[in-house]
Amino acid sequence: MKALPRIRPRTMQALAFAGLWALAVLVIVPVLVVLGIMVAKGWGELSWEFVSSVDTGLLAPIVGTTVLVMLTAAIAAPVGVAAAVYLSEYARAGTFVRLVRLAIVNLAGVPSVVYGLFGLALFVTLLQFGRCLLAAAFTMALLVLPLVITASEEALRQVPRGLREMSFALGATRWQTVRRVVLPNALPGIITGMVLSIGRAAGETAPILFTGAFLSLTHPFPKSLLDPFVALTYRLFVDATEVPGVAEGVKWAEAVVLVALVLGLNLGAVTFRARLRRARRW
Amino acid sequence: MRRTRQAFDEQLAELEQRLLRMGEFVETMLEKAGRALVTHDTKLAKEAIAADDTADDMDLEIEQHCMRLLALQQPMSRDLRTIGTVMKVIADVERIGDYSVDIAKTAIELAQTEYYKPLEDIPQMVEITRWMLRQALEALVAHDLTLVAKVIERDDEVDRLWYRIREQVEEVMQARPEVVPQAVALLLVARYLERVADHTVNIAERVAYMETGRLEALAPSHRTELEVGDEGNPDSGAEEI
Amino acid sequence: MTDESRETIQKPEGEVKLDTSDLNLYYDSFRALYDVTVSIPAQTITALIGPSGCGKSSFLRCFNRMNDLIPTARVSGDVRLDGQNVYDRETDIPELRKRVGMVFQSPNPFPMSIYDNVAYGPRLHGTQERSVLDELVEKSLRGAALWDEVKDTLRKSAIDLSGGQQQRLSIARVLAVEPEVLLMDEPCSALDPTATFKIEELLLELKESYTIVIVTHNMYQASRVSQYSGFFLLGELIEYGPTVEIFENPEDQRTDDYVRGRFG
Description:
The structure holds three protein chains of three kinds.
Chain A: H1 9-42, H2 48-52, H3 59-90, H4 95-109, H5 112-126, H6 133-158, H7 161-169, H8 174-203, H9 206-209, H10 232-241, H11 248-279
Helix pairs in contact in A: 1-11, 3-6, 3-8, 3-10, 4-6, 5-6, 6-8, 7-8, 8-11, 10-11
Chain B: H1 6-39, H2 42-73, H3 77-109, H4 121-142, H5 145-175, H6 180-212, H7 220-230
Helix pairs in contact in B: 1-2, 1-3, 1-4, 2-3, 3-6, 4-5, 4-6, 5-6
Chain C: E1 16-27, E2 30-41, E3 45-49, H1 56-63, E4 73-81, E5 84-85, H2 93-99, E6 100-103, H3 114-124, H4 130-143, H5 147-150, H6 163-175, E7 181-185, H7 193-206, E8 211-215, H8 219-225, E9 228-233, E10 236-242, H9 243-248, H10 253-259
Parallel strand pairs in C: 3-8, 3-9, 6-7, 7-8
Antiparallel strand pairs in C: 1-2, 1-4, 4-5, 9-10
């Protein structure tokens, strides 16, 4: 077999860089293209009035989505962080822990529409919440729970083992160590995970489809947790598929707002984490 | 177990070899001095005397080598004892060299004198002490405690010869006053040789410490006897042989 | 007349602070310590030497039950502090770790101020009053020979200190809980010689008030600071006795080979 021609290392390196760069561009380009198309098509309809008016504008969906994600966070955070703390700090290797982890992985893979159906069955029907913010929030919380647990656990793991050892060696109980050393230092990571979950929650449609989202001109804002609400994603879904006579531009504009919201949340998460990291080095 | 610190081991071996060479050198001085005395060989005696400078140089060199090893190698346990032992032993060897010089000087002094009787005991002492020096140093290099014991045994022989010479000299000085000068000189030579033997015993004892790590004088009772014998105790020495 | 042969594990004079009998330590099926029986005297420095991975650190960690943190670790035999078995069911572990403090190889300061680092231990055990904490912090920092260097910058982050200072801070942290025993696991391994000497000086002072056991892979350090030394090899305590004897004339050939650096 003939030997391959020997390529000089320097040439090889240049080739490799070029190749990798090209692949990276390949990833970014579609995103930019999509964003570009969205903005281009929706630009016409975008205006302050569009965003802030109640009747034809997006104020109600924006408020609805905001309240939804806050509730979701309020439910998912304690449960998720506690689970992460348990898994990271307390659990001893064994069947139970393996089952828990298996469950988390599976939860992460469940399609969101299944969550919606589950939420309908459990929260709306069985527990008789009815279609409302509460049911939707609980359903959404379930969806983001694996995210929160994984991100929190990762953050907890990042705390160097030596710090825990030190704390124990000084006579701390496990809980004291978690409370005083581990959690405070894992906070940036945990919060980042939370914000990413919020971003996810803001962008999902299926889970709220059956559990609480609706469109209403008479009751755009929910008066209590047990009221249904208007959400951005649902609004977009309906406008894009069901309601006749909606201008193209409007649909795209709504998409832009939604994407802007989620992107904004993600960017916020990243910036926040960076700032916290700089303040708390180890 | 694979040996590490091979370089250090080699340096220790070299140190021991240097000591052996110094020992051989001084032994030669002793041999020449002894022969010069018996054969009235002034030239030989002068050779022995001149060699002392070299012996002193060797002493210094070996000492410096030891200091360097101590500073650079941080020796512990047996290695530390070895180096410490070598440092003390070269002092004993150097003293033996000095005694050889004294004997050689006596040889020059007595070059023209006809001995009142042929020298037998003194050459015998020279031979034994040469053997003791050789064996003591061999014991150090070979880490052999049996040689140590043998050296210490023969010290008794040397002492017996010393006492015998002393008695003879006392007798002859009373009987023939004209030989007093040579008798006194020869007595001193015998004394030098007895001291040489003591120094080789020191060396042997140091080797025992090096090996066992326990500071013990191997022949304490022996030493006390010696002191008592010097006071003129009639029970000392001269019965047998 | 020859000496009687010395015992390879000697019983030290004076009050015994820590002792073990037939201590065995297993990580799952791996046996890390074999029947270790030894008595460690009070208010002295005992050094544990031996090649890497031979059990010295594992042994040290038995005294404050830090091995409990390793799920696969299993202990059999007795480990006693002032005669009391620390592996008793009734043992209060946080209390034990208060009495038996530990300093590790990496200083690992908490990402807090110097003050908070030192006050961490006392706060754990309930001390909240500011004035009490202030006093304790100063006393501990003085005890660790660090006070003069940091007294004006107690609020600064501990991370900004140099390696040697951080290690002394670790010592201050431990002193703050007012222990009786100091266990040190290679405390100077990560430090330069000057910092090392400073800490050795400190140890020689501290031994007046504390019982110190120090694991070190640097046997010269052991010979400099300790009064008693124990040689570990493959999980076995081969020899234990006054440092002077271990280094000048050890009983066991293996100890001898080790201190002379002739180990393969």
